[in-house]
Amino acid sequence: MAEQEHQQVSEQVNELAQKVEEVILGEDGLPLSKKALKKREKELEKEKKKQERLAREAEERAAREAAEVDHGVDNYGRSAVNMSREKTETKWTALGELTAEMAGQLVNVQARVQGSRPVSGKMCFLVLREGVETAQAVLSVDADTVSKKMVKFATSIPNESIVSITAQVVTPDVPVESCTVGTVELRVRKVFVTSEVKIPLPFALEDAMHSEEACARDATLNRVGLDTRLNNRTMDLRTITNNAIFKIQAAVCQLFREYLTNEGATEIHTPKIISTASEGGSNVFKITYFKGAAYLAQSPQLYKQACIAADFGKVYEIAPVFRAEDSNTQRHLTEYVGLDLECSFREHYHEVMNMIGSMFVYIFKNLELRWARELEIVRRQYPSEPIKFDEQPLRLEYKDAVALLRAHGEEMGDFDDMTTPQEKTLGRLVREKYGTDFYMLDKFPLSVRPFYTMPDPTDARYSNSYDFFLRGQEIMSGAQRVHDADMLKERISAHGIPLESLEHYVRAFELGCPPHAGGGVGLERVVMFYLGINNIRQTSLFPRDPKRIDP
Fold it and tell me: Strand ranges (DSSP E) for 391-515?
């Protein structure tokens, strides 16, 4: 009897719970009225019919598309992985080669899809990019070649994918100002994806190409921070600006080689793993070398001088330089590319210093002449005036520079080393007084130069050393070197460096060595200051500094 009563109570509880669940509450937490319930039922029925209609339309649309003959089916798709399976006679055209004179011609291009913009189901635009050039392509449905499905496929291609396109060159009614190749447009006939992006992009490439001026004008523009860009450097390097920057960097190396080769210099390649600090200082990277220790070279200094002692006459090198300086500034790196040179001379170190000045003039003139296109692209994002320089570079002595700074309120001693702010101030004063952004500063105090620097013959407090400046900042340091073995030993001892640590270096001079001078140029600095860019990391391919060792 008790069990029956218990079962009866349970059934009543379940029935009550079911009724409670069926009660629909309003926003106020109270049960809805009959009127409100009827209204809700009508809304639910209306939504149900809407969904049924949408589903039916989708089915009908899918059925129509399935039944529709795709006349462009052979003109688009995803290509198989290129495993160098075959060779064809296809002629490929670079985007930069497209001209209005080619109107009407069919061309084959390979490029990245920088962006796509559908206009309707029957038309879309693609922005193609190859190196420093961009061009606009358009797909429009026609009766023979381009189908709706082809247009739909093109708009679905992920940005930054690589495509092969066959297209007809046409001249647009209005130049395409958003592309570097604006005088023509490509009417696509075939489009095949040859390498598809598989992951979300870390940022939109267009956002990494805004100038500071554009961002200041339009606060809605997205900006990509430098750390984000450097953390995704492969993506960042795809911008046409970066592509142009590193073409200019390569050009500086090319022109450096051209000039010195024409001067009879020999390119050398010196060791980067050495047994002692090449500059005699502490800013070196110490590494394990089997059972002992070694250092990464701070410069090729000792070896390029050895080549002069070996009668090479004039030598140069383009190679990495390592500096263990904990400097987190906008112009310092722990690894950079050094453009080094060393030359013997007949009578006076100015023979070499003036040759270096002429070399820089050669580089600057040829950059503007032969790489004008790349400079134009860089200056769109980083506006700057072309540098001002003279055929015969200005030469100032250190004491005259100190006097010029003092005359404008700077406080410094005769033999103090210049600070970076003082260098910049001097650059501004020189430009105002002499009308040049490029000059040579000669006769530095001996106390601020390395042990191998030749003292001035008339005042031992100074030295036969020089720096070259561009836009108020140092791009090269050099000097006449001490080539007399006895004098060299004295200089080494004066700097507190153990003579035995430089035994092989000194021996080269004990064998007799001609007088010589040279210098070292920081490639990234030259490009940075020449282009008027604010951070050296932007002119280093994969920069290394005290806080960055990846990627």
Answer: 394-397, 438-442, 465-470, 473-480
